[in-house]
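Two folds, back to back.
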Amino acid sequence: MSFFALLLAFLAEQVRPLPRSNAVHEAARAACRWAGHALDAGSRGYAVLGWLLVVVVPTLAIWLIGSLAWSVHPVFSLIFHVVVLWFTLGFRQFSHHFTEIQFALARGDVTLARSHLQEWLRASGDTVSAETMTVPEICRTAIEEGVVASHRNVYGVLFWYALLPGPSGAVLYKLAGIARQEWGDRADAFGEVARRAFYLLDWIPARMTAVGFAIVGNFEDALYGWRQRASSWDDPQRGVVVESAAGALGVRLAPVSGKWQPPAETVDPDLVGPVQPASAASEFTAAAEAPDEPARLPDPATLHAAVGLLWRAVVLWMALLLLLSLVSWAS
């Protein structure tokens, strides 16, 4: 049933996309703000309690409702799964920004592309200015935002949905992400707890997303970017996702010291970071060697390739979920 619920949720979202500012997400953000204020006693224990209240308690409630729906009739359970997934998935929440930028660049309207990108960055809570970005910088930023948004709104949700019973896993991951957005910039215990909790929940999904990009894209370059460049990012999880996508697309997306720079003609050790020593536990060591050619600059054609990469990854994980569902049904 998980596969069919996910398929129906994807179709429902394509027909009727969930607005970014919807009542459910706004209620979750309001709960985070309330807990962050009411329980702000300067204690880590209160911060953990706040996180449990806004993330774990709703997750348990969703699990209980899902169990009750299943006990009544499987059809009610299917409907409940689809509704919850519709509120937790969000492919269309960012894809229209991507499409608008792509169309603007195709018409040669760089100013309009900057405007669409700035709107996207503002909606994502990013303070980066797109006013003076060149075309390669616009493409780089759009691809980075797109692959990160697809991971956090699709692949991460899908992973936890498949792992935990009912739709509770999808709710857990989504609420943890909202808590990180609301508290992540704080320098107190709430910020620390939110960042650490989401880091732990996102550790495996980020690497599963990277593997997916490698499978449906350039395998060796994706693994090379993951292993050699991701650790240089301020947010290593984001680095894993972005660098694997960059390698899969054959472009360079890594920012250097917080500012994007075009790739050099040769691989600079200062840019890719130190080479890790080989070991038996290394991930795909043989495949993760340095690519033969330097990565190229991202361009408007890369945006089209990125859309294809994201959809192929969705199809890959949907196929794996279907396989798991068939195995579960057969056993």
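---
second:
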Amino acid sequence: MAQSRMVVNDDYEHPDHLEYILESVLMPSDESLDFNLLRNDYNSVLLHKCQCDKGGCANNERCSHGGAYEYCPDGKELIQRQTNKTGNIPIVECNSFCVRTKVSIPCGAFICEYAGEILTISEAKRRIVTNKKLGSMNYVLILNEYTKTDDCYEDKRQVTIIDPSRRGNIGRYINHSCDPNCHITAVRIDCPIPKICVFAARSILAQEELCFHYGGEDRYVEDQASDSKACLCSADSCAGFMPNSKII
């Protein structure tokens, strides 16, 4: 019996400068050491997995990854388990302003990958500066992950940077909200570099706009940057300006 799958309607018009891709790809080579390291990770196969069964990771004590389900035995299983919650129908429609669902979406359902070019930190900084100078829309998404090391006073940080401004998919059109109905999760399937996946954070009604918080799990706000853009999400919890991820 064939499994039901959720299908994202991606037959909308893309800008002429945008190359449509199904999943994230490596940025063009700039011959830098950072790029060579990133390329090595991109071409590597992830071998170390926890020993939990395919029903999902166990609790923090039993799972070697602390119960972090994005490291479950097969990352594809995580996405497939969530897509099977919906039928084989187009669920979203898109225009240049937002992404809106055509049908109700259950909490936890996988919606799409935030696909784009995988960047080095130096290239991300360069593109962000260029976007500001040109007044261009900034689509660069910076995901920071922290894992415990042997030194209890220091966490190891892994940065994944995705830019769908030149090459991307429908994920680039999902807007920010301070009270989102979706969230992003890093999912590793067979590569050390994770896929940035968008999931439903709650049950979503038909015709609702899909949004996630551009700051990810880092919802706290210390200081408003002088060049921050105003947030127009109108949520009761709205911070008043868009979050800015820092690249260290």
